[in-house]
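Reopening this ticket.

The earlier resolution said the output was attached, but the attachment link was broken on my side. Pasting everything inline this time so it's all in one place.
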Amino acid sequence: MRSIRFLPIVFWLPLHVAALCYFPDRKTVPNQDTPCSTEGNSTCCGQGFACMSNNICKLTKYVKNPGPAQDYLRGSCTDPTWKDPNCPSFCASAVDGDKMDGGMGLRKCEGSDLDAYFCLNTETEGMSNSEVCSNSDLFITFQGEKPQ
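Inline output:
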């Protein structure tokens, strides 16, 4: 008879477990980040950001108090190790001056035929868009961008 009383609780718990998101430093992100997919590990984006198919979070008009000139961000990931291929594999290097304990701003290369972006880190600080985007070591390219 005891097992019957506990049975409803067992079924209730999985319905209320939410995926946690982590920054590259492996610390849990506050509740404002949401996984982009409910299947397996995925990129997480902040409230109001659009999840793009290339694992970039794109600013929308629904973001309250956006940061200065950051239309694109590397968000967080549901895999605390960041080894899953569905995690963003860019802008997550402490050596390059990327922010490991929060979202990381990106900027799109202007006037390029490529879908190219660069991390707003210490490596690109003080450089113009054209300077960064003419050096293939400093930007990342994707096959295309489209909302998920």
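Reporter confirms the inline version is readable. The longest strand covers residues 104-108. The chain has two helices and nine strands.
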